[in-house]
Specification:
Elements: E1 3-8, E2 13-18, E3 38-41, E4 44-47, E5 50-52, E6 54-59, H1 74-86, E7 91-94, H2 100-109, E8 112-116, H3 129-146, E9 152-159, H4 163-169, H5 171-188, E10 193-198, E11 213-216, H6 222-236, E12 241-246, H7 250-253, H8 255-271, E13 276-279, E14 287-288, E15 291-292, E16 326-332, H9 336-346, E17 354-361, H10 367-372, E18 377-382, H11 387-397, E19 402-407, E20 410-412, H12 416-422, E21 429-433, E22 436-437, H13 444-451, E23 459-460, E24 465-468, E25 474-477, H14 478-483, H15 496-506, E26 510-513, E27 519-521, H16 527-547, E28 563-564, H17 609-619, H18 623-640, H19 649-677, E29 698-710, H20 716-729, E30 734-736, E31 745-747, E32 751-759, E33 765-776, H21 779-801, H22 810-849, E34 852-854
Parallel strand pairs: 6-7, 6-13, 7-8, 8-9, 9-10, 10-11, 11-12, 12-13, 16-17, 16-19, 17-18, 21-26, 22-27
Antiparallel strand pairs: 1-2, 3-4, 4-5, 14-15, 19-25, 20-27, 21-25, 23-24, 23-28, 24-26, 29-33, 29-34, 30-31, 31-32, 32-33
Helix pairs in contact: 1-2, 3-5, 6-8, 13-19, 16-19, 17-18, 18-19, 20-22, 21-22
Length: 855
């Protein structure tokens, strides 16, 4: 007989039925339907054209059944999937390749599958080329076999590569390998979603080509969990974010605590606009490393399938919460090509307490007819006066407490206003906004323009507070906008949003970024219109400099206190010195620290200055110097294409041209505007709030690797303890890792040692120690420069002395020879000696720790 229990779980009384195991589902549910293909749509997922929230649960791995499959028998499998469906889940994550019965049961229950591709990710796989080929073959075979199945929502090409293992192999190399696996899987299954499941200890492993961002997170305090969600949303950039694991041990925390955490976790996922969540796990039954795990209780049901309190279905998504009235203002001038799409999207908003106002800034096309064809739209026309005047008129006509601005070439997500309304739950927030994402390109040029730099983007001071929000997705309290006098009329085409954001902050207000409040924003259709847009941005920067000189540096560039975010967010290269690993790579949360404010001499070659330098060099007759300057500028433009390179040669050439010319056109327009307006930058720009750490100037190269085996659980910690003792006995000073280095110890000033322990089941462990030599990062560049300088000095000296130069030429030549000899002595004699001595120290420490050398 079913037992009915009543308790408070999600902040209100909920009544649900607990069934006995292997019986009918606890609550009625809609009839299952065959799963449709899941697609990415900006920050969200869609299935069958409708927005789809991935509400999943993990399943397995289990002890092999009679057929050797890592799943329960067919009868238990069918009952489990029926219960999963009854609990309200629509997806199941599995960690082994599915069997035919599992695929059939998932289809019968209308459940999507998230498949993890298992491979040897617990060892140094990059150190064995044959193993890499086997992994690639396995991924390709799995994608070919399951990627075209309609019930498979996504393939995860990897899961939680251990943090010290990533540090050992090198984060850059690991990330590139994961990206290669995704490309292999995409070639085999082009219609399947692909990603890699990372975790906080390696959150920098976010493949740039993944369709969505997948993260496993276990945080049992609500405030900490919400903070981390905000960070992950920003790292995800324009891609959906799915929490692929989150769970609570009921044996440790208790059933009530597990149910409570599941309730607020589901609420947080909805509030922060994630694309999905996978609860870990359906049952306590878990088989790993050749044995059953029995000392935990993460399941919603026990091993015997008795349901816990947390198994109650979560409440449905809230579609239209109560909040302030919002007036949406769309300013347009001859925007008939896209205005209809914009107004249609605003008519589909899930937030009901809103109005739409169209301000026509003197259009001469069919804009009036299009606007009047929408019954919910209030249309007003003004004589052409510019964007700021139009926005001020919209604010005057608005009846809402919040004014949400968007452009006529934008299409708002159906939950755009719902997420914006949530941003104003605290009076300290006077403005809010979200990302603007390019939709599917209308032609090839638009796709290249979307990948080119210079598009509208937000600037964040932290994971929640913004310094700037683009005007195409900007909501402001009407009272706050009136208090600063509205938008400034001189900003007729651009710059008005930057000006108003800076003034709102100067007045004491705070700007809030809402990652889920997204709009689709069309980019320019032609190269000419794109460059014209960048020229307009440059003119707007000159006007901004006139009003806000302290926000611009001596060279005229804008100086932001925060970080500029865009489509490539989360794809930054994990270089040494930019990741805080924690001491010896053991940090639980390892993140990339970076800043857009760090000056780089390379930036000289992105703008007008490199053209001026090239022309001066050519005028002086230094043709080679001109070619060098042009080459460096071209290479810098190529670097700006990182993560956006197209497959065709013509596309690459066109994108490279846009990256080369964009800063030139923008800076030239800014310089002209500065002269016309008499604008001058401040030589004391505002101080940056975020400073990047100092990166090391050393480059490491592995010389040798030693391996040690233990059957009794002896690992790297034991070796490091003995190694410290050996160093002390030999009176050798060592520099230990404080969290920023990829090495554990540095000795003899030029030798680095890194250790790793691989776990091979039970107490069996393999400890590796790498000995690397370090050199100055630009050693060979400096040496070559000095040699070339000596040769040039020799040539000039010979020309000046003529016939009297006999015997003088040998001086610079001897200097160059001496430098080469010193470098060779250091490279071939000193470094090998130092590494040989380090090897003896490593072996001594390993012997004392009880480690056995392994071949």
């Amino acid at each position: 007989m079913n037992a009915v229990k009543r308790r408070t779980v999600y902040g209100h009384d909920s009544c649900f039925v607990f069934p006995p195991p292997f019986m009918t589902p606890p609550v009625p549910c809609p009839a299952p339907v065959a799963p449709a293909r899941v697609r990415v749509s900006g920050k969200f997922l869609r299935c069958g054209g409708a927005k789809w929230f991935c509400h999943g649960v993990s399943y397995g791995p289990f002890k092999p059944n009679a057929r050797g499959e890592p799943f329960p028998d067919d009868e238990r499998l069918g009952t489990d999937f029926a219960s999963i469906r009854a609990m309200g889940f629509n997806a199941v994550r599995i960690y082994d390749l599915p069997s035919e019965p599992l695929l059939s049961e998932a289809a019968a229950q209308g459940l999507h599958l998230i498949l993890g591709i298992p491979w040897t990710d617990h060892v140094d796989f990059l150190g064995d080329r044959q193993r890499c080929k086997e992994i690639e073959a396995r991924v390709r075979e799995t994608a070919l076999r399951f990627g075209s199945h309609d019930g498979v929502a996504a393939l995860l090409i990897g899961n939680e590569i251990e943090k010290t293992l990533v540090r050992w192999m090198g984060p850059v190399k690991v990330k590139r390998f994961l990206e290669r696996l995704i490309e292999i899987a995409r070639a085999a299954a082009p219609d399947c979603l692909l990603s890699y499941a990372t975790y906080p200890s390696t959150e920098y492993l976010l493949p740039a080509n993944a369709d969505f961002i997948a993260v496993n997170v276990y945080l049992e305090e609500r405030e900490a969990f919400e903070r981390y969600l905000r960070r992950l949303q920003n790292l995800a950039g324009n891609r959906p974010l799915v929490i692929t694991e989150f769970g609570v041990d009921a044996l440790n925390q208790g059933e009530h605590r597990q149910a409570e955490i599941r309730g607020w976790q589901h609420e947080c996922i909805q509030r922060h606009g994630l694309a999905g969540n996978v609860w870990f796990a359906f049952t306590d039954e878990w088989f790993r490393g050749g044995e059953e795990v029995v000392d935990w209780g993460f399941g919603l049901v026990t091993r015997e399938r008795h349901p816990r309190l947390a198994s109650a279905p979560c409440p449905p998504l809230v579609s239209a919460p109560c909040g302030p009235r919002i007036s949406v203002v769309v300013c347009t001038c001859n925007g008939s090509a896209t205005l209809g799409e914009c107004l249609e999207s605003l008519g589909r908003q899930s937030y009901s307490d809103c109005e739409v106002i169209v301000i026509d800034d003197g259009s001469i096309d069919s804009t009036p007819e299009i606007a009047r064809s929408f019954a919910q739209v209030r249309y007003h026309r003004q004589e052409h006066a510019g964007l700021s005047v139009a926005r001020n008129l919209g604010a005057q006509l608005a009846t809402g407490d919040i004014i949400a601005y968007t452009d006529d070439d934008c299409m708002a997500d159906e939950d755009w206003l719902r997420h914006l309304a949530q941003a104003f739950d605290d009076p300290q927030w006077v403005a809010a906004g979200g990302p603007n994402i390019p939709p599917t390109a209308r032609n090839r040029t638009e796709s290249l323009v979307a990948a080119a730099p210079g598009g509208p983007s937000h600037v964040l001071l932290n994971d929640e507070e913004a310094e700037h929000l683009p005007g195409c997705n900007l909501a402001i309290r009407k009272s706050a906008l009136a208090a600063i006098g509205g938008f400034r009329a001189p900003f007729v085409t651009a710059g008005d949003d930057v000006d108003v954001c800076w003034r709102l902050r100067e007045a004491g207000g705070r700007l809030r970024f809402m990652p889920a409040a997204m709009v689709w924003h069309h980019r320019r259709l032609t190269v000419r219109s794109y460059l014209r847009q960048q020229s307009g941005y440059g003119q707007a920067e000159a006007l901004l400099m006139k009003h806000h000189p302290r926000h611009f540096g001596p060279l005229g560039g804008a100086r932001w206190r925060g970080l500029i975010y865009g489509a490539a967010t989360g794809s930054l290269p994990p270089a040494e010195g930019s990741i805080f690993h924690g001491a010896f790579g053991q940090g639980l949360f390892q993140i990339i620290y970076t800043s857009s404010n760090a000056f780089c001499w390379f930036n000289v070659f992105a703008g007008v200055l490199w053209i001026v330098l090239a022309l001066i060099a050519g005028w002086l007759g230094w043709g080679a110097a001109s070619l060098v300057i042009l080459g460096v500028a071209s290479y810098h433009a190529w670097q700006r294409m990182e993560g956006h390179r197209t497959s065709t040669a013509s596309g690459k050439a066109k994108l490279w041209f846009l990256c080369l010319m964009q800063p030139v056109v923008r800076e030239w327009a800014r310089l002209k505007g500065m002269i016309r307006l008499g604008a001058r930058p401040s030589f004391k720009p505002c101080r940056h709030a975020i400073q990047p750490p100092k990166k090391p100037c050393k480059r490491s190269r592995k010389v040798m690797e030693l391996a040690f085996w233990s059957d009794h659980g002896v690992g790297r910690e034991d070796w490091m303890r003995e190694f410290r003792a050996v160093l002390a006995e030999n009176q050798i000073i060592a520099r230990e890792d404080e969290g920023w280095s990829w090495h554990d110890f540095e000795i003899f000033n030029r030798v680095a040692l890194t250790s790793l322990t691989e776990y091979h089941g039970g107490q069996k462990q393999l400890t590796r120690v790498a000995i690397s030599r370090q050199s100055f990062r630009y050693f060979w560049v400096v040496l070559l420069t000095m040699v070339m300088t000596s040769v040039l000095a020799l040539f000039c000296f010979h020309q000046s002395l003529g016939s009297r130069s006999d015997g003088v030429a040998e001086i610079p030549l001897a200097a160059a020879t001496l430098m080469a000899a010193v470098a060779s002595f250091q490279r071939w004699i000193l470094w090998p000696l130092a590494c040989s001595k380090a090897r003896r120290l490593v072996l001594t420490a390993a012997r004392r720790a009880g480690l056995i050398p392994s071949v």
